Predict the 3D structure of the following.
Amino acid sequence: MKGFIALCLVLLAAGCASTGGTYEAPAPQWVRERAPRWVRERPPRGAIWGIGAARSALGVAALPLARNRGRMGIARQLDALVRETLRGYAAGQGGETLDGLAERTGRRIIAMNIPHVLPLTVWNGPDGRWWCRMTLRTEEARAVIMEVLDAETAEIPGFDRAAFQSLLTRRLARRASRPPVIDS
């Protein structure tokens, strides 16, 4: 239980990091020992992965929890991507920072049930822990981000949607090949 709490704190700190990137620390020992091999794979171009793991005294509750944690891994990656892209957009426009917009947009993305996130691989480990690799195509990720951003920027004069979308597309192409985020 202490290891689980420590891992949650590390993941929370990674989500709040001011660098805007996703924290990619070496996997904890329990992940290296008990996880399926596909946990360490990188997603193919055009996809973002989130990996969830859960173990429960009620075995049936663990699989949906692992799926939700995989979805949350994807949502946290999209949150980090939006923050970093808005920072780059603001720097490129030479204007004010958009920290408030980044915060609101990130919160909405994390809180929403992102459509089109699908389970790709499910595995039940020998210790009873369920592992689930969730996937989201980058085109769908871009559509989700732009939908949320359109709602948030409706009243911001001078926001160049096309410039932001171009920057987002380039950053999504780079991010798609990063290792998945593991949420357990």
Q: What stands out?
A: The chain has one domain: 45-183.
